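Appendix B, record 7
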Amino acid sequence: MQAKLFRLLQTLFSRIAENADVLALCGDLTDRGLADEARILAKELQAVKIPKIAVLGNHDFESDAAGEVTEILAGAHVTVLDGTAIEISGIGFAGAKGFAGGFGERALQAWGEAATKVFVREAVDEALKLESALARLRTPGRVVLLHYSPVVDTVDGEPREIFPFLGSSRLEEPLNRYAASVVFHGHAHRGQPEGKTSAGVPVYNVALPLLQQIYPDRSPFRVVEIPAQRSDPAPPPVTVSVNREPTQ
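Structure tokens (predicted):
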């Protein structure tokens, strides 16, 4: 079984490196969140020479070893985004895991029992982390990585009863406000491959089982081209002198 997995990863990563400039992984990098599972992935990623970025998924938290999983991947030169951002070749990348809670008017609200409020607080905190990451970027091109979906479009096809556990529309607002160029997420294995936010930002579901289903005759990955442009200049520093107005 392990040998088969090695061959699958080697072939997949080799083809991605031939076709893309950056490898983005949208969570569930392990099955049970075990360090040994992360080491298997890290070993194969060592051979991938293009920049590698990722977010963690719910599976990666199962064994309470998410920190160790992140460290192991960092050893393979994978930048794990968690409310953080990075610029690569003139393109900005922002990422967070995201969380559940549902979509639109049917989204779970922080009312009633303490456990419900804790659940909603987690969804709000993840949205704030995403907002913070996007706010750091000065690049016209902004790519967002999530695990949970920010829109209902890409979870359609899953049983409706589990929609609230597949994503949260709280993640959509910062995507629209900071004019993300494109969003990638995983998690919804039987959802739809494409959707859009209310402002028209394209959203791609890149969950591996879904890609294997819709692309049965080729390697299960998606390539999206984002034009590289120069970063917007940071605002000039403000110099303040005693008894004078601030000057730019």
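Remarks on this record: Residues 114-136 form the longest helix (23 residues). Residues 26 and 147 are 5 Å apart (CA to CA).
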